[in-house]
Each structure stands twice: as structure tokens, then as C-alpha cells.
Amino acid sequence: MTAEVLVNDRLKLAQDKARVLQEALPWMTRWAGQTLVVKYGGNALARTPLDRSEGGRPEDGETNTALTPTDTGPGEDPSFARDIALLHSVGVRVVVVHGGGPQISQLADRLGLETAFVDGRRVTDAPTLQAVQMALLGQVNPMLVRMISDAGAPAVGVAGTDSSQVIAVQHDPRMGFVGRVDHVDPQLLDQMLDSGRIPVMATLCSTADGQTVNVNADEVAGAVAQALGADKLIYLTNVAGLYENFGTPDSTLLSEVGVGRLRQMIADDELVTGMIPKVASIVAALDGGVPQAHLLDGRIEHAILLEIFTDSGIGTMILPEPAP
Amino acid sequence: MTAEVLVNDRLKLAQDKARVLQEALPWMTRWAGQTLVVKYGGNALARTPLDRSEGGRPEDGETNTALTPTDTGPGEDPSFARDIALLHSVGVRVVVVHGGGPQISQLADRLGLETAFVDGRRVTDAPTLQAVQMALLGQVNPMLVRMISDAGAPAVGVAGTDSSQVIAVQHDPRMGFVGRVDHVDPQLLDQMLDSGRIPVMATLCSTADGQTVNVNADEVAGAVAQALGADKLIYLTNVAGLYENFGTPDSTLLSEVGVGRLRQMIADDELVTGMIPKVASIVAALDGGVPQAHLLDGRIEHAILLEIFTDSGIGTMILPEPAP
Amino acid sequence: MTAEVLVNDRLKLAQDKARVLQEALPWMTRWAGQTLVVKYGGNALARTPLDRSEGGRPEDGETNTALTPTDTGPGEDPSFARDIALLHSVGVRVVVVHGGGPQISQLADRLGLETAFVDGRRVTDAPTLQAVQMALLGQVNPMLVRMISDAGAPAVGVAGTDSSQVIAVQHDPRMGFVGRVDHVDPQLLDQMLDSGRIPVMATLCSTADGQTVNVNADEVAGAVAQALGADKLIYLTNVAGLYENFGTPDSTLLSEVGVGRLRQMIADDELVTGMIPKVASIVAALDGGVPQAHLLDGRIEHAILLEIFTDSGIGTMILPEPAP
Amino acid sequence: MTAEVLVNDRLKLAQDKARVLQEALPWMTRWAGQTLVVKYGGNALARTPLDRSEGGRPEDGETNTALTPTDTGPGEDPSFARDIALLHSVGVRVVVVHGGGPQISQLADRLGLETAFVDGRRVTDAPTLQAVQMALLGQVNPMLVRMISDAGAPAVGVAGTDSSQVIAVQHDPRMGFVGRVDHVDPQLLDQMLDSGRIPVMATLCSTADGQTVNVNADEVAGAVAQALGADKLIYLTNVAGLYENFGTPDSTLLSEVGVGRLRQMIADDELVTGMIPKVASIVAALDGGVPQAHLLDGRIEHAILLEIFTDSGIGTMILPEPAP
Amino acid sequence: MTAEVLVNDRLKLAQDKARVLQEALPWMTRWAGQTLVVKYGGNALARTPLDRSEGGRPEDGETNTALTPTDTGPGEDPSFARDIALLHSVGVRVVVVHGGGPQISQLADRLGLETAFVDGRRVTDAPTLQAVQMALLGQVNPMLVRMISDAGAPAVGVAGTDSSQVIAVQHDPRMGFVGRVDHVDPQLLDQMLDSGRIPVMATLCSTADGQTVNVNADEVAGAVAQALGADKLIYLTNVAGLYENFGTPDSTLLSEVGVGRLRQMIADDELVTGMIPKVASIVAALDGGVPQAHLLDGRIEHAILLEIFTDSGIGTMILPEPAP
Amino acid sequence: MTAEVLVNDRLKLAQDKARVLQEALPWMTRWAGQTLVVKYGGNALARTPLDRSEGGRPEDGETNTALTPTDTGPGEDPSFARDIALLHSVGVRVVVVHGGGPQISQLADRLGLETAFVDGRRVTDAPTLQAVQMALLGQVNPMLVRMISDAGAPAVGVAGTDSSQVIAVQHDPRMGFVGRVDHVDPQLLDQMLDSGRIPVMATLCSTADGQTVNVNADEVAGAVAQALGADKLIYLTNVAGLYENFGTPDSTLLSEVGVGRLRQMIADDELVTGMIPKVASIVAALDGGVPQAHLLDGRIEHAILLEIFTDSGIGTMILPEPAP
Q1: Among A185, B85, B287, E10, which has the highest number of CB atoms less than 10 A from its own CB?
Q2: Which CATH superfamily is domain A25-319 in?
Q3: Do E137 and F158 touch (CB under 8 A)?
Q4: Nearest residue to E24 via CA among E298, E235, E295, E302
Q5: CB count, 10 Å around CB of D117?
Q6: Which residues pair with E98 in a beta bridge?
Q7: Residues whose CB falls within 8 Å of the CB of residue C41, separated by 6 or more in sequence, listed in order
């Protein structure tokens, strides 16, 4: 009948949980009201209803390289959506930018689209662009919106073409309907963030004369972060981070690195193909005022949460000034 | 050298145009700031890059009925997008709701999906739902957004699932992932309209427990109009309007009709199948406070503009009180 | 009974009108939200109920010069008011600034006011100032407000003295109660424009110590345009525009001219008296940041509409940089 | 050198003034943020520059009656303008509504307008309406705006026709362009009050089809007070207030009276002609929710200030419920 | 070097914490934006620098009753402040209302104030009121503000007398300067909550004529909750909750009870003295629209957090409708 | 019965008062919307209920110097509160900052606190800090709030510790819990001023790591004025102002002085101890952008009102530029 009676095992367990919440409090305070752009790869979503027969295919420019020494099979990642929802609950303004390489490849296969090549690179002709739209807007984007909604947060699917918010240029007409970001108008995203929503962006963009083109999602994420004045830019990928002396016995994961070192890596051709757009986009975003970027291994459960709410130090953080 | 010299043919032509603008002025004043929901069928967009080989297929519940005595081949309709942009320019708040029956059917064929039937009606199983998403979100929606953007107005693609703004119930589990509208939260649409954008909505909706379902676009349009407190609800279809004594020699197009007569048509089973969801949605919307609805023939160029800015009297207007 | 039946002559005519609206769409989009200051002369309104007996008198500094080779009789101009209303309907922020020379002269005559002269110029003594107020505030201003209101737009009469929004200095005390603009506080006009109204301004202004003075309407229009950060400044007058070699057989209407050429015209004394305040005000406004000004012949019906919504190229456009 | 030295006569005088300010404090607190509509007659402004030769003429329906036993010569009243400015300074929202009977009569005389009569009442034909506009908008209104501006407060001249804010009906077409108030749209006045300005309203109003008509200023003041939800309605006139047994030896000034007694006075024909529109407007305004009205003698210096900031009890206060 | 390497013990521990955060997510979503009023007793703060020599004294009306079978020594409670800060971090709008019985008693002792009694109850005379102000405003309130600030949240000390936000009546003049709540103006609290602050309220209140009086903190908390339209009202006390058959061998803690049962307890005199103001305030608050109240044992660490973010079910919840 | 009858003595007296209000009008207009920070010393409030036995004690750093030749007994000063309320009524934004030296000393005596000394200066140890809090937050602050509230204005008590709005540093740890201002976050004060309240600030402040310290009220007032961008900073003290040749037969009160002269006074050690913090704070505030400061004798009734609303020229005004 006394209070001591209540201090039973169940209460102790509950109090343990309360203590964890308390430990997270300073981080919640730190990040509330901050803007976070997360680039999410299409790999993790590869096992969709249309994708039962085989393992996930590598997303373009991400996994068919020697950079990915592990062979973790990608799969559904509800922890990602729930982490995004948790960040939203504590007042973080989150934008998700996604690609969808595996889904595009699968769909092109199923539709029997023949692929043209120029200089060995796949050309995005009109039927392929149609498949890109169906894969990104019709598969990956609604699945992410649904997953985040299921986790309790108001996600809204958007495309770079909505309100022509991401304007691109077709950098090489021979490659077809692919482009590079020219500039981003952050107004629509800002309005959504201001009214407490989570924009989930597919990377179809518009050229100045109204043509739809596909743009690399790493690049869009960096440009969006810069246009929004984001406080952090996170790339979820399937590698542990950046390495010093990658591919040698002395290979070491870099936990923090300055943007100058990244410039050098690009100049010295140290990066595997799939990392180049990520690293170049990070360099551009940090040059454009984003104060920090992070390369995280999306295969680790709750990777974002660990990065934001603990100092467990997974992945590689990139800062504007060279780390000492 | 005198002003008379300027009054040449070119000037006269320009002044004729100025007079037309002046004639439209009272209508612009009348509709500025008003909210308009337009339901646009998928037929008009059927000739997409994936759709080269044959004529457009009938959208579900629209054309495989005796109601459509004409056999106009559907095709691209840039005048629709430009009319929407013009309405936007003069301050009308426009929401476009679209279906995409032909595109869904085509894609299901191309993907080789086998169709299950219950009581003779097609079941929307998981692979079919996937095809619906790809057709609506990956084909029709971005094409409408692009066309309206090309016409100079800031269109934004949305789905009923965004921010769970349209909540549906699965009315018959045997039919799979299709639903009926339960309620609409107009906040996201209102914010977009307030900031001068044109939402273009695909009719994928969420159930209360997070399942995505497809809902008839006629029904969604009516429910959205009611939730927004819209001033007018327009269905663009491929018939001239509603007829008295349809199918008889005395068949007469009704230019204005009260909602009571519509109720009677439903009760007396006077309507062909494809018109039932439209008419039922109009009855529900008018009962819910929408002051007028319109059935227009979308095959007539500038049909919406004619209806809004002239009194040429095309189509059938439905009013809350029975017409005398 | 088919849709084809509807495609009759009436429909074709309506569709022709719809096409004209569509042609105007890019211009509507271009000018929506822009601010336009229009200076309207008192000539066009000269046939007021008090002005039945004779033809309109020339407005001060506008028509008793050799610049006006035509002898067009001024009269009521409802097309002006309807054009202003149309601009308002499509989202243009319009301010009308007007003078009223003919009305002032007429009223002074009727009141039997004797005119004093200094250096051959008429002195605005106290009784004359009273007549100016009655003519501008009691005749011209309410007539313009009524005409624009009749055309369906919410016009509001204002004076430079309201809230002391236009502060003037008495430049030559011997000339009596006339002044030059010192500065303009745009807040009241901005609030009216923000709430969707059309301010119609009479050019009575206040000195710093509270004296009411009359100011040349051309000058007020330019100063108001500059203070509002207007996007365009239009002078409606009764000449076709500016001429090269005016008064010679080689006289040519300039369709576009740089502000430098205007400075030269003033320096070289090329202008007839009545054009000097217009041209000087345009130079000042363009120097103050207004990006373009236009001299239009107000006697051409729908002159403003032609200038804003077509590229028929009537009148003379003046740009900050010299035209090539 | 001590503080006592400072306590000299000058300081004492200043402290006396400070005490007066302190006495007014509760009244300032009471009225801050409240809305006050003041009807100001044209008599007080009759000695304008056009009006030098003779004494002020009686305003229509105000002084050519036996109600005004005193023969105070009207004249300029700067204390009125300064009182309005003081009320504005302490946060009262003030609207001034004015007539201008003497100015209209004078101007009609000067312009040699012949007066038509119907049933012995003067007809407002088109030339007379023109004279009304010139007298009200061109003389009285700008003079009041200037006087209040000189007293340091931001006055703005408005007319009932601006933005068609006061809609009237022509009650008797034989009487010409005079009307009765139909309804008032308070939005423009509210915006001006919200941005800290003092609207000064001339009583030209619009009919529904755009005709300008003159309306009795007493009636407009009451209708404006009701539409604004004003907290007090004041009529400044040239009588001391309402009397019991007026015109008899027992005549007594009523310092407070209920609206019921006013109704009775109208029914029993106790009022002289000039008071009828005032009393009828007060009855209508109080019935419409205005909580109190006041009839004050405008010839008493600082009459409004005394009424608002002291309880000296001048004039007659009218309350919704009959005074006991 | 692989991701597996990272999945070490440290990572596992971090992921355990992430899972706890995830478990709390639905509760965060549930309570974000909701308003919570917490009444905090003075006991827990009794060990202040002035209070070193002995154990905490019972707060008035809380512990000198048989209701408190346990003898837990009160002490500093940093977990309370950190829980409040955590609630704030996740978007809960929190108001803290506190008393300070022990601190008042101690200070009165130290100041050697003699206590007068009326009917056996202590009288709050002027020196005692001074001591109450010093204890509440000078000790308890700043300590709570500091503790919550230390926990990272922006606390602001307020009193019921600030802006006269809590108006009280002196219910029994013989008792001196104590009162009962008459009404609460929630505007100041709402503004603070809207700008993201945590008001911490001491229960000094004002009478209508400006006298400061002390009011029972339980009563103030209930009235504030009602005025704010709070979503939950929590009393932190030093008992486990409400009991059925209190004081008998069958005594049972009620985990949920309807307000009807509370009414009965008051009517049947079942409550010990100290619980009466709490229970009466809860009844009034629930009658006034507060949807739920909670009696919690403040001696349990993280008691509020457990109640809000888990369903561990400590204490007694009171609901408007009788629990079945 | 005529209006003349009303012009009796009572009316004349009322009109005299109206004229005083009119004289104050330009000053009201001048100061409306301006921000004023007033530092009020604790002396004037020394006769509190706890303080009956003896005369008021000197506030720290104010009166135990030769600067105060007069021996005016301090006492309650309701005129101060009413002046603050009057300023508020006419739209001045007022912040009151107060100390409380006499109250602190008295309370420390009554609590029998022993005072430690370092270098001859009193040390603020923990028990003394507690007494400071009780004196400032529990006595002086609520008394000022009550007095201003009684005068009809919405005062709100605040401390520098609220929302950590004044951050201080402990300048000499040996002196205990006293500090110097580091910086002020004006947001909370601005919000209160924006919503029409009068913040009354006690000078308890927070260090960056959460320790409460006491700070000299003169210094806090200056720092708050600077952070708010105040238009005027007033120190109410018990001297007539600053003197030239203080303490000599040539002593002359300075009615206006430049900040340069103040710098020289500090450098030349011309000031008595108690004036140093005031003068140094004024120098800092004027350097930080406050355009004028004033030293007034708070013993003169209505001192602030005289300074703000008349040009009687009491006290010393300090301006950024040296007075000529």
C-alpha cells in the first residue's frame, strides 16, 4: 500500500526507459528547429511487391564498385522511417531525398525496354524516362511516404518538377533526359516544413523550357540542403564511411574529415566511381554554407538516430574546415 | 505622323482582342478568389509515349457504356492545361483531380498482370495496386503537372496519401485494395492554394491503418470539393452532359437540372453505369454545401474557359434546388 | 444530339474568344503582382456636367503647345476605367495619378476668380487653391473613382495630403500655393494595394508645416512610382509619343529610347513646354530605380491594355539604358 | 543646491499639469482601443476662404429651426481637430463623419445654380450634386484633414463612394441624387483604424448600380458606428442637448435619457425638424448594438475631450435602456 | 573494417537506447502541442540553503493527515525539472503551479512572526503575507525556474498577480490575506506557451481592488488548467493516489476513477483534510472541460514521464465520466 | 437653459484641464511607440510592512556618499507608479529595472545573517544570496507590480534569470554570488512590450552554467536599454543630477552634458562612489546606441512625467555627443 510497493520490477524498467529519454534530452534541445536533409538510397526499398524473385539490384553508382566490401543484402528498413518520424516529433525539420536505381532497372527489364549506350553509359531515352518516373514516383516515393506515415509523421511526396522547384540543365544531350541541378527554389519545401510536414522528394526535375529530366539523387540532396540553409546533410549509403588508404591493408575509417581532404581525394582519383557524386555534392554543399555533412551506413539499424542523438560516432563526418 | 496613322489594321486587330478581354472582365471579377475543383479523366492523356500502338482505351466507368453516343478519339489536350493556367492567372483557386483508367489497363497489360475477378469485377490485388500507383503517380500525374507548368502556372503533384489527407475505407475486402472516401483533411490543399499553387491530385488514398487503396476519381473530386468548401465542381468527361429520356428519340440535353432530379435518376435506374459515380458524387457534394456542379464535354476545346468566362451554356449545370 | 451538334457558330465564336484570352495569358502571368503607376490627364474627363457649353480646354502644360498637331476633342473615356479594372482583375497593382487642368480653368472662370500673374505665369492664390481643390477633389477624383468602380474594381480616392503622404516644398513663394515634391511615404498606398484596392490620387500635397499646395501631376506620378518601387510608369497623354526631329519633315516616332537621349533632349531644349515635366519626371523616376516608363496616346481606345497585354508597340518606351 | 531649491514656482506649475494628466489617466485607460464615431457639422467650418463676406449659413436641417435658441456665430474650431488628435494619441480609434450644408448652399449660390423644388423641398439635380461634391470633397473634407494633420495626427479623407463602402438607395427619385443608407462595408475603415489613421468621411455614397448620391451625415454617422461596432457615437451640434418640455418655461436639459424616450419623442412629434435625423439615427445605432450615443454642443471648446476624459456631464447621453 | 565490425557492444547499447526512444515515439506524437498543467508541492524543495537543520516540514493541507502513511523524507528532485524539460523538448506546453507550505512555515519561524488564530486556523496577517511572498517568490519560484533552466528549458517565473492574471476574492476577511480564485485570464500564459516558454507560477493573486492574497496552489492549478483549456492536469503529491476504503484493511489504490465518485467522496466526508482542495479542484476543472486529471506520487523518480510516456499506470487518473 | 448657462465655473475648470491635456499632446505624439527603460532605486519603497521601526536605509552604492547633501526621508511613492501607468496609456513602451539595497540589508539583519568581508567589501555568500532573492523577488518586485497594477497598467514581474534573459559572469569569485552583465537577450521583454505589458525586472541574473548571481541594478538597466534599442534611459535617484565642481562653492547642476564629459569625470575620479556605476552604465549604454540618458531626482513628485511631457528641465540629460 505504500509507494515502496510500486517500486517493483515493472516500475524499474519504466524508469530505466525514462533515464534513456533523459539522456537524449540535450540532443533533442540541440536539434529542435534545425533542418536536416537525408539522402536515402533506393537499395533499402528494393524488395517491393514487384521484386520478389531475386535479391536487390545495386543502385546506380552506389554498389557495383569495389567500394562496398560488404555484401549485406538490402531489404525493407522500417527503422529508417521510424527514425525520421522520431526526429520530426522532437521538432527537427527533415527533408528526405531519394533515388531508386534498383527499382528503375527492374522496371525497365520488366517492360522489356532496350537500353541504348553512348560511350558505354546508358542513355535515358523517352521510354526509359517514363520507366524512371514510374519507378521513382509510382514505387519508391509512395512507399517512403507510406512508411513514414505509418510511423506517425505527416510525409508528403514531392518531385523536383513540382512548382518547377528544382531547375536542371541537360548536360549532355547524347545521354538523353538526364540533367545537372542548376538551382533550387526552396519556397515549397520551406512552406511544408513550416507547417510541420516531411517532404519526400523524388529527383525528377525540370529544365528551363519544361522538359522533365532525371538527376542524380546525391546531387539533388546537396543542392536542396544548400538552398534550404540546412544545418546537416546526411547520406545514407551501404558503406561504413570514407576510408584513408582505401583498398590497402592500412585502410582506416575516417570518423571526421575536412572538406579540403575530400577535394584532394577527387583530384587524386582516390574514390571509387559510386562515391564521386556523393563526395562532389558534399563539397559543393559545404562550400555553399551547409555546416556539416555525414556519410552513414544505412544498413545499421537506427543509424540516423545514433548519429543525431548519441555521440557513438558511426560513419564519417565532413566539416568545412580541414580536420586537424 | 498623327495618331490616326497608328489606327491601322494591326491596331484594330489588337483592339478587337482588348475588347474580348474586356468582355471577360466581369467573369474574372466574379470568379477571382473562388475555389474550383476539376475532375479530369485519364482518357485525354491516353496517347502517352507508352501508348503508341492503338487508340485510347476507355477509362473505367466512363466509356464502355451506351451513354457515349459519340466515338471521338481521345488525345492530348494542351488546351485543358492552358485553361487551368488562365484561371489561375486571374485568381481562381483550382484543384485538379484525375483518374487514369486507360493508363492503368495498358500498364497492367504490359506487365503481364493476370486479372482476378470477383462477381465479374476486377480485383485490385497487390501487383495491380502497384501498377495503379505507377500509372497514376508515375505517368498521368507528372504529365498533368508538366503540362500545366508548361502553360506557366505552378502545379504541384499530390496524392490522397500525402499527409494522409484523404482517408478511405476498404468497402469490400474481396475487391482488394480499392476504397471509398471516409473523410478529407483540406489543410494541405488549402495551404497550397493560399500560396498560389495548383494541386494536381492522384486518387491513391490511405485507410485509417495505413493501407494504400485506389478510389474512384469522381468520388474523390466530390469529396475534395466539399471539404474545401469549393464554389464549383466540374467533371470533364466525354459526353455532352445529362440527357432527359436518354436513349430514346426524345433525348434532350439538360442544360440545367436540380439535384432532386439526379436523385430520381439514380432511384429509377435511368443512368448508364459509367455515369453513376459522377452523379452520386455530385449529389453528395451539393448536399455537402457545394453550390453548383457541372458536367462538361472535355473534348470541346477550352471547355472550362467557355463555361467559366462566357455564358455559352455548354454541358449540364446541376444546382442544389430543382430547376423549374 | 451529339457533341458535334454543339460545335456550331456560337461555339466557334466563343472558342475564338477563349483563344484571345489564351494569347493574353503570358502577359497576365508576366504582370501579375507587379506595380503600375498610371498618370491620367484631366483632358479626357473634361466633358463633365459643369462643362457642357464648349469643347474641352487644354490641360495645363499639355496641349497649348506645338507638340499636339492633332485636334482630337477629348471626351469621356470609359475604356480607360475598364482597362484599369481588367489589370486589377489579373493581379496588377495599379495606382492612378491624375491632374485636372481643364476642370480647374473652367471652375475658376465660373467662380469669376481673377488671375494674378508673376513673370507671365498664373499665381495660385488662396481662392485659386480653393478652386483647385474643388476641381480635383470634388470633380475629377470622384468621377474617376466612380468610373473604375462601375467597371467592377474597388477604387479609393486619395490625395497627397492624406496622412501627409506626399510632402512638397513651395519652390517659388511668388507663385503662391504650388510646390515641388520633396518625398513620398508609400505606406498608405502600399496598404491599399495590399488589400486589393486601386488608389486614385489627386495631387494636392502638404508642405512640412502643413500648408496645402498643388503639384504638377506628372511629377507626382514619377515620385510615387519611385517611392513604391513600381515596375512600370505610364503617362497617358494626347500625343502619340516622343519624336526624333519633331517639327521637321523627318519627324519620326521613337518606339524605344534610352534615358540618356531624354537628358539630351532637355539639355538641347528640344522639347515643347508641355512635355518638359513629363520627360523630367521620367528621367528622375528611372534614375530612382523604376525599370521602365511609357508615353502613350490616351486617345487610342484600350491604349494601356494594348501596351500591357500585347506587343503592338504603340507609344514610346523609355528604358534606363540608352536604346541601341 | 538642494532639491528644495528646485521646488520653485515653475516646478509647481509643471506638477499641477502632471496632476491633471494623472486625473485623465483612468479615462485614457478606459477608452484606449475603443472606437468612436464623431459626426461633425459643417457650420463650424463655414468661414472658409470662399466665405468671407457674411456670417455662416445654417447647415441643412440643423439651425433654421426653433431648436437653437442661441445665436452663436459659427467659426473655425481648431480645438475640435486638436481634441481628435489627442484622442488618437491615447489610443482611441476615431472616425469623423461630416456634412457641409452651409458650404453647399454658398457654392450653389456662387455658381448661380437654380434650385428646383418638389413638395417644397430642394431637389438635388445633376449640377447640384456636382456642387455637393465640390463643397464636401473639395472644401470641407480637405480642410478637416488638414486641421487634424496640423494637430499631429494622420488623417485620411474618404468618401462613402470609396471602394463602394457605403451603399445607399435613392428613396425618392423626384428628389434627385439623394439617398438613404442601405448598408456599410466597414473593411476599409477598419484597415485604416488598424494602421493608426483617422478616417474623415464625406457622405457621398454609391447606389447598387453605381450612381453617386448625397446622404444625410447624421444618418451616415449612425450607420458607420453600427457597422464598425463602435463603442460610442457623438453628434457635435449647435444645441446644448435634448430638452424635456422643449419650448416651454419648464424646459430642462436631459443629461441622460434612454432610447425609449427618444422613440416616444419621434412618435409624439416633439422634435424640431433639424433634430429628427439625429435622433432617428441614434435610435437605429443603439438598436444595432452601439452601447451609447451623445449629443454635444460643439460650440463649447474641447467639448469632446470634456465628454470623454472628465465627467463634467455636458450634453445628453443616450443609452439603450430607458434612464430611470 | 566492415560494418559488422561496428556492431560491437557500444553500438548495441546505443541501439538499445534508440529502441527506447522509438517506444516513446507514439506518446510524443500523442502529446505534442497539448497543454499540461502540473501542480508541484513545496515539500520536494524543502531542503533549501535556509533549511539545513531538519527534515522537511509538511506543506499546508498536504501531509499532517492520516492520508500519508509513508514517511518518505522529501528532498531536492532534479528529476522533476528534467522531466519538465523533456516534455518541453517534444512539444508539450507545460505550466508549473507551485505552493510552498514548508518554506513559508520555516521563514515565519525564522522571522519570529507570531501567528494569530481564528477558529483554530492560522490567520494570514500583513507580516505573514510578506513572509508568504518572500518564501514563494523569493525561494521556491526562483529555485524551480533555475532547476528547469539548468535542465535546458526556458522557464519563466510568474505570479497570479502579474498582469492581474488570477483574480481572487477574500472569502473570509477574518482569515486575512487569503482568497479563492474568482477567474483566470489566460492570455499572458498563452503568449508564453506560444513562444515556447515554461511558465512557473506562484500562487499570489490579486483581488479586484488590488489587494494581494495567497490562494491554495491546488485550487490555482485547477483554475489555470480550466482557463487554458488544458489537456491534462497533474497533481504531484506525496501519496500514491486515491484509495477505496482508505484506512481499512481493504484499502485499494484506484488506478482510474470517474469524477462522480469524487463528488461522492466529498459528500460522504471520506477524504482526509489535505486531499479536499485537490479533489475539489479536480472536480471543478473536469466540470470546466479539462478532459483528465492525475494524482501522482511525486516521490517516484520520473513520475511525470512515466505517466505521460508509458502506460505503467502509476497513481490515479480521474476522468469526466464515472469509470465503470 | 442656454449653452451660456453651462459655461459656468465647473466648465471653465474642466476646460483648463482640457488645455493641459492639449499642451501634453505633442509630447505624447513624440513618445508614443518609443521604448523607455527606467531604473528605480529601492529607497523609495523602504517603508514596507517589515520596515516599520526605523528610517529607510541607504541602498548600496547610492546614499552612503557625500553626493547626497539632502537628507530627504524616503517613503512610498505612488506618483512613480501612476506616472509609469500614464506613459503606458499614451503608448510608451516602459521597462522598469529596480534594485533593493535597503530591503536586502534589513532582511539580512532580521535573519541574523553574519556578513563576511573581503577587502572591506561585503561578500554575497549563499545565505546572503537567498536573502537578496527574498528581498528583491519577494518584497520589492511584487510591491512595484502591485503599485503599477493599482494605477491601472498591466505590470509583470520578471527576473534576469527568467528564460536566462540576462547572462552574467562572476567577476570576482571571492565576492561570492555577484556578477557583471555579459549579455542580454531582449526577446522576452520585447514580447511583453509588444503585447502591451510593463515588465518590472529584478536584477537576479544567471551565469552561463546556471548559477544565480546578483548584479548592480544600474548596470542591468543600461544593458537592458542597449539590448532593447531603447530610446531613453532614466535613472531615478535621490540627487538632483550631475554637478560641475561638485563639493565646491561653485557647484552647478548640469542640465545637459555630453558623454565625453562623463568619461572625463570617471578618469579624473570626480565622482563619489555611489554615482560610479550609474555613470559608467550610462557611458556604456550611449556607446551602445541609446540616444539619451537622464539622471532625475526621484524625490520630486511626477519627476518622470515632467521630464517626458514638459520641458521643465529637471535633472541632467546626457547625450552621445558632448554638449557645447
Answers
A1: B85
A2: Acetylglutamate kinase-like (3.40.1160.10)
A3: no
A4: E302
A5: 8
A6: E40, E202
A7: C59, C62, C98, C99, C101, C217, C236, C237, C238, C298
Q: Which of A66-75, F14-23, F282-291 has the lowest mean pLDDT?
A: A66-75
Over the Cα atoms of chain A, what is R_g? 21
Name residue B131's amino acid: A
pLDDT at B195 over 80: yes
Q: Is B7 helix (H, G, I), strand (E, B) or coil?
A: coil
**Contact assignment for A89 to E91 by CB distance below 8 Å:** yes
Give the C-alpha separation, F306 to F312, whole Å: 7
Residue ranges with strand state E in B49-171: 93-98, 117-118, 121-122, 155-159, 166-169
CATH superfamily of E30-319: Acetylglutamate kinase-like (3.40.1160.10)
Q: Is E251 on the interface with A (CB under 8 A)?
A: yes
Q: Is the pLDDT score of F104 beyond 50?
A: yes
Q: pLDDT (tens digit, 9 = 90+) per residue, B4-62?
A: 454 467 778 778 888 888 888 888 888 989 999 999 986 666 433 333 233 333 344 33
Closest-CA residue of C relative to B150 is C26
Question: Residue E195: which of F134, F142, F191 has the nearest Cβ?
Answer: F191
The Cα of A20 is separated from the nearest Cα of chain E by a number of Å equal to 6
Best residue in D103, D162, D212 to probe C by mutation, most C CBs within 10 Å? D162
CATH classification code of B39-319: 3.40.1160.10
Give E230-262 pLDDT, tens digit per residue: 999 999 988 888 888 777 777 888 889 999 999
Please compute, for residue F139, the number of CA atoms within 13 A of its CA located in the half-sphere on the CB side. Answer: 31
CA distances from B51 to A103, A127, B139, B267 (A): 22, 10, 11, 39
Task: Kindly report the backbone phi and psi dihedral angles of residue B258, in degrees, each rounded to the nearest multiple of 5, phi listed first.
Answer: -85, 160
**CB contacts, 8 Å: F17 with chain D:** 20, 23-24, 309-310
CATH 3.40.1160.10 given to domain C33-319? yes
The chain D residue lying nearest C209, using CA atoms, is D150
| E141-192 pLDDT per residue, tens | 999 999 999 999 999 999 999 999 999 999 888 899 999 999 999 999 999 9
Sign of CA dihedral F260, F266, F269, F274: positive
* CB of D300 less than 8 A from some CB of C: no
Residue D145, amino acid: V
- Cβ within 8 Å, pair B153-C3: no
Question: Chains meeting F at 3+ CB pairs closer than 8 A?
Answer: D, E
Output the average pLDDT for chain B. 83
- The chain D residue lying nearest F307, using CA atoms, is D14
**Which chain A residues have a beta carbon less than 8 Å from that of B159?**
142, 145, 157
CATH fold of the domain at F36-319: Carbamate kinase (3.40.1160)
Contact D7 F300 (CB under 8 A): yes
**E147: closest CA of chain F, how far (Å):** 9
Strand duo F35-40 + E316-319: pairing? unpaired
For helices A78-89 and A141-150, what crossing angle results, to 10°? Answer: 60
C-alpha cell at B314: 455548354
- What is the CATH topology of the domain spanning D32-319? Carbamate kinase (3.40.1160)
A85 to E15: CB separation less than 8 angstroms, yes or no: no
Interface of A with E in 32-91 (CB under 8 A): 32, 69-70, 72, 79, 82-83, 85-86, 89-91
* Domain map (residue ranges) of chain E: 30-319
pLDDT range class, residue E312, cuts 50, 70, 90: low
The DSSP-derived string for C133-172 is HHHIIIIIHHHHHHHHHHTTS-EEEEETTGGG-EEEE-S-
